[in-house]
Amino acid sequence: NDIYGISFAVNDDLSISYGRMESKKGLKTGVGAVTTEADSIQMAYSMGGASLKIAETSVDDGTYTSGSANDVDGTTVMLSLAF
């Protein structure tokens, strides 16, 4: 498995980040191995007691099986309020 990420605070209220994951399953020699890959980009913005968070994620060969039927894309939006 190879996993890495990077984040950047644009200012006190806004941050962006990116993450990538690669996982290989199969023979050690690489013959017959299938790789699952996931990429995600996130954004978080806070102002007072309110936070807005958005993530766009893409997974290729999610079940260690080749083919576009095993590819998944998703968007997550979260709003949290504190009183």
Can you describe what's shown?
The structure is a single chain. The chain is mainly beta and 83 residues long. The chain is built from no helices and five strands. It has strands at 2-9, 14-25, 34-47, 50-60, 72-81. It is elongated and about 55 Å long. It starts with a strand and ends with a strand. The model has no long low-confidence stretch (mean pLDDT 89).
Outline the fold blueprint.
Layout: E1 2-9, E2 14-25, E3 34-47, E4 50-60, E5 72-81
Antiparallel strand pairs: 1-2, 2-3, 3-4, 4-5
| Rg, Å, rounded | 17 Å
Q: Assign an overall shape.
A: elongated
Q: Mean of the pLDDT scores? A: 89
Largest sheet report: 5 strands, antiparallel
Name the beta content range: over 45%
Number of continuous helical runs: 0
Care to count the β-strands? 5
Alpha-beta classification: mainly beta
Strand order of the largest sheet: 1-2-3-4-5
Quaternary structure annotation: single chain
Précis, in short:
Helices cover 0% and strands 66% of the residues. It is mainly beta and 83 residues long.
Tags for this entry?
83 residues, mainly beta, 0% helix, elongated
